[in-house]
Design brief:
- The complex is a heterotrimer of chains A (117), B (493) and C (316).
- Chain A has 117 residues and is mainly α.
- Chain A contains four helices and no strands.
- Chain B has a domain of 212 residues.
- In chain B, α10 packs parallel to α13 and α16 packs antiparallel against α18.
- The longest helix of chain B is centred in the C-terminal third of the chain and has 32 residues.
- Chain B starts with a helix and ends with a helix.
- Chain C folds into two domains: 100 residues, Four Helix Bundle (Hemerythrin (Met), subunit A) (Up-down Bundle), CATH 1.20.120.1200; 187 residues, no CATH class.
- In chain C, α8 packs antiparallel against α12.
- The chains are: A mainly alpha (117), B mainly alpha (493), C mainly alpha (316).
- Chains in contact: A-B, A-C, B-C.
Chain lengths: 117, 493, 316
């Protein structure tokens, strides 16, 4: 029972780590941003899992229903999603400009160009 | 009535000045607005500090909802002091910014600089003032996103890669913090700092809370550029426009260090942080390694802005060192150094801003002969540099003095010796610059170089004079830092 | 569901074709939105679908179109560094789960503290059935102001970096798809529906899932569709970039301004109770206004982002 109750969290952790792996391992700037998005989205799932309540329903008050899932994590994650997309937009804009300045979005090539110039 | 609303005005004035700057769509006008908002923010922070020292901690309920249901602003000695540091450095650097930014950033983007600047300021003030951990995350992101923007506005293309790298590292850090908050929330059901501190006691032996501690420390440590998580900092400082380098150097990492103090002492408590987690045994070696490695790299760095960036990493090491001693004197030294380092580093970056204004480069070789061509600028650099080394009569000396006293209190004389040796390293890298400026053979080019304009020199010298003033009259700084340290350590007993 | 997510994530990690990786990310995001529905988070699901699968994916595709489509293989050394970091972090997290309350356990501390007040009293204190909206716009309304500022900052950042053409009509290299008759007619039919739906979501957020943020994204998508089909020239004639930018700033100012008004009326910042004769009326008015501000900033910021990407020209 113990194992089953935590299984959900473990999968979420694996998802987060795949995202983090992509961020660190990938030399391509856009792929890094994709990785960041996976990492963040998985953290969102972690939060929403905290909010889930056995037998609860969506937190919109209706007559006759007494058990609702926890709305607070939902609110926090709404905020976090917006923050995530804001970061993504800015990161991608930077990547586009970097491509304009270096003709590449590969980290190693950019470093090479900086070293020689 | 106004007095009761000061806590929220501290943050909201710059926050709303940001969008207005964008609407003005004019570089000079938006600078004027941003500068006025900055000075107002400075006066508010002074008033708040004054109030806290008289009446004790202030609490402000946003939206009129009581904590922990609503978001609370909570100001005590430590964050009142941090608010003063941020708004003070900000007011000086933005006064410096007009001439410097006009010179370094495309005219059409002038108003965007000040929009970003105001958002950055409100983000930092928001982090420092709040008593709610999720609100910290939100304002952290405001300040981070605007700082990525501010760095990338420089014309140098390396600014773009520096900003990108900072963005990736910063987002990883912020996500770690988010994970930490999730775990804490899971175990306590609250996001309010004071409420967390009370409720954490009953679950402090769970593995979840310990891992939350690790993630928060790592995430904030990344933002604070604590060695070895510092890789983003030197380039971010070096390739930002000059005025913005000074702003960052005086404020960004300071807020992150403050957050660490908040989590270690107020939320988790001394007992958990340093007895259960044995944090001091990790921080002490990291601090020392940071000081020596970064100082050594600084000696070999020829770009003076990057050199100062590495020096900042070393200086952050001193603050962490003070914290790791877990004594009132040690923490006092750390808080003092927050203030003092902000003064000296911002002054040095402003002096470099003057150099860049006239010379267009801050590579060490290009500074040859400037000691005579730009006497006021280089004079400021020398005094700021001496403060960095820790010569008596400057603020740098005061920080080191308290640090050494704290080390000796705990019979760690070897540590005191190491601090002294590390100061010699600082002397070496500062001296290299001075040597070139005063004794380097000036090429024929430097003959034509004029002294920087007064609009740049006056803010620079205000900071230099502050470096000396607070090096002599320490009653304000040591008094407040001491009280803050007692409050932080006293929470556990 | 979680299994599918894992498979998708691994596929993204292994994919060298960036285009495919981005499309897979869109799927990943949609899958997580579905998962959020299962976990009762309807508002979040709505937003994740609109933002993650919609906006973020479009932005990534836009960035790909302006750069290159393939990535170099990951070097061996880097692979091992990344793997070790990830394994250590993941192991730490799993260790941390061992003392966690079980999934969906009704006795978890998160369900027992703070939240009960939202669920039991928000009807009396605020008077709207959607608790997420109550918490978002009132109890923790200040966070939401921060969130609005974040998206505004990003829009300013992208404008500042990509350099949007200052005012008037934007000339674009992509002429739109005026020649495709079916596309044009479908788009014309769709546009009013999308706009109507956006308005519905904006003003229905009190009762069902939705609110300013989701509405803003949907509203913006109508303009993006218009721009894609009819070309940048036509869309900037309808909504010149200077107007859009002004609206983005104005939205933040509306939200912040509501707070200033409550200050002037003698309440704390963002205390809506003082806005009306009855606290509940004040709450209604306050939430309406701030949601409006959020919707405005989000829609305008998203449209600005689109303009910036679409009109970007490389400086040679």
């Amino acid at each position: 029972m113990q194992i089953f109750g935590l299984y959900n969290y473990w999968i979420v952790i694996i998802l987060m780590m795949i995202g983090l792996y992509v961020v660190i391992a990938s030399g391509n700037l856009i792929k890094k941003i994709v990785g960041l998005n996976i990492f963040q989205t998985s953290v969102f799932i972690l939060y929403i899992s905290i909010g889930k309540l056995q037998g609860g329903t969506a937190p919109i008050l209706v007559e006759g229903v007494t058990s609702y899932s926890n709305p607070l994590p939902h609110v926090l994650i709404l905020t976090a999603i917006v923050v995530g997309v804001a970061t993504t937009a800015l990161g991608l804009a930077l990547a586009v400009r970097i491509y304009g300045a270096y003709d590449s979005i590969e980290e190693d090539e950019i470093q090479k160009q900086d070293a020689t110039s | 009535m106004i007095r009761a609303q000061l806590p929220v005005l501290q943050v909201v004035i710059p926050l709303l000045a940001g969008p207005v700057c964008l609407l003005l769509h004019h570089s000079r006008l938006s600078w004027g607005l941003a500068t006025s908002a900055s000075w107002v923010a400075l006066f508010i922070s002074l008033a708040l500090l004054d109030q806290v020292l008289i009446t004790g901690p202030i609490s402000y309920e946003l939206g009129g909802w009581a904590a922990p249901w609503g978001i609370e602003y909570r100001i005590d000695e430590i964050n009142a002091f941090v608010l003063l540091i941020i708004s003070g450095i900000n007011a000086i650097t933005i006064s410096f910014a007009r001439a410097s930014i006009e010179h370094e950033v495309n005219e059409k983007r002038g108003h965007i600089v000040y929009t970003g600047w105001m958002l950055y300021l409100s983000g930092l003030l928001g982090i420092a003032i709040t008593g709610d951990v999720f609100n910290v995350f939100v304002f952290l992101e405001i300040s981070s996103l605007s700082s990525y923007l501010l760095i990338s506005l420089n014309r140098d293309r390396r600014a773009l890669t520096a900003a990108f790298r900072y963005l990736v590292m910063g987002t990883i850090g912020a996500t770690f913090i988010l994970i930490g908050i999730a775990l804490l929330y899971m175990m306590t059901g609250t996001l309010n700092m004071a409420d967390l501190a009370a409720r954490i006691l009953s679950v402090s032996d769970t593995r979840t809370v310990k891992i939350a501690f690790a993630f928060l420390t790592a995430g904030i440590g990344l933002k604070a550029a604590v060695f070895p998580m510092h890789f983003w900092l030197p380039n971010a400082y070096a390739y930002a426009p000059s005025a913005i380098s000074a702003l960052f150097a005086g404020t960004a990492t300071k807020v992150a260090i403050y957050l660490l103090l908040r989590f270690f002492f107020t939320i988790y408590g001394v007992e958990f942080s340093f007895e259960t987690m044995k944090l001091d045994r990790i921080l002490l070696p990291l601090a020392l390694a940071g000081i020596f490695v970064a100082s050594t790299i600084a000696i070999f760095e020829t770009d003076v802005k990057r050199m100062l960036g590495y020096s900042s990493i070393a200086q952050i090491g001193y603050m962490v060192l003070g914290v790791s001693l877990v004594s009132v004197t040690g923490v006092t030294a750390a808080i003092l150094h927050l203030f003092n380092h902000a003064l000296m580093k911002a002054a040095l970056f402003l002096a470099l801003g003057c150099v860049f204004f006239r010379v267009g480069s801050v590579t060490r070789g290009d500074l040859a002969g400037l000691g005579y061509a730009m006497p006021w600028t280089m004079g400021a650099f020398v005094l700021g540099g001496l403060s960095l080394v820790g010569i008596p009569l400057t603020v740098g000396f005061i920080s080191k003095w308290y640090l050494i006293v704290a080390a000796l209190d705990q019979q760690m004389w070897w540590l005191a010796v190491l601090v002294l040796i590390s100061s010699l390293l600082a002397l070496v890298y500062v001296w290299q610059v001075i040597e070139v400026a005063y004794f380097g053979t000036a090429g024929d080019r430097s003959v034509k170089i004029k002294e920087a304009p007064a609009a740049l020199l006056i803010p620079t010298w205000i900071l230099i004079i502050a470096n000396i003033y607070f090096g002599i009259d320490t009653s304000l700084t040591v008094g407040v830092a001491g009280r803050a340290a007692q409050a932080l350590l006293g929470t556990a007993s | 569901m979680l299994g599918l997510l894992t498979v998708t994530a691994i596929a993204i990690a292994r994919m060298d074709q960036l285009f495919a990786a981005v499309m897979l990310f869109g799927i990943y995001s949609l899958l997580s939105a579905a998962l959020f529905v299962v976990m009762d988070a309807v508002d979040v699901a709505f937003t994740e679908a609109a933002v993650g699968a919609g906006i973020a994916t479009i932005l990534m595709l836009g960035a790909l179109a302006l750069t290159s489509r393939e990535q170099h293989a990951v070097p061996r050394s880097r692979h091992w560094i990344a793997l070790s970091v990830v394994v250590i972090t993941g192991a730490a997290l799993i260790y941390g789960t061992l003392d966690m309350p079980l999934y969906a356990d009704p006795n978890a501390p998160a369900h027992l503290h703070v939240v009960p007040r939202y669920l039991q009293q928000s009807m009396q204190e605020i008077g709207i059935p959607n608790v997420v909206t109550s918490v978002l716009a009132s109890y923790r309304g200040y966070d939401t102001l921060g969130e609005t500022v974040v998206i505004f900052t990003a829009a300013v950042g992208v404008i500042g970096r990509l350099g949007i053409v200052p005012e008037g009509v934007v000339e674009s290299k992509t002429g739109g798809m005026e020649h495709h008759l079916i596309l044009r007619i479908t788009a014309k039919l769709m546009l009013p529906l999308i706009l109507l739906f956006a308005l519905y979501v904006q003003f229905h957020g009190d009762f069902g899932p939705g609110g300013g943020f989701q509405a803003g994204v949907i509203f913006a998508s109508a303009f993006i569709l218009y721009g894609l089909v009819f070309g940048m020239r036509s869309v900037t004639r309808v909504a010149p970039s200077i107007v859009v930018r002004t609206l983005a700033a104005a939205g933040v100012l509306i939200y912040g301004g509501v707070g200033v008004i409550s200050l002037l009326l003698g309440g704390n910042y963002l205390d809506y109770n003082v806005l009306g004769d009855q606290p509940k009326d004040g709450q209604h008015l306050g939430i309406f206004l701030v949601e409006f501000g959020v919707g405005m900033t989000v829609a305008a910021s998203m449209i600005s982002l689109f303009y910036a990407y679409a009109s970007y020209k490389r400086e040679e």
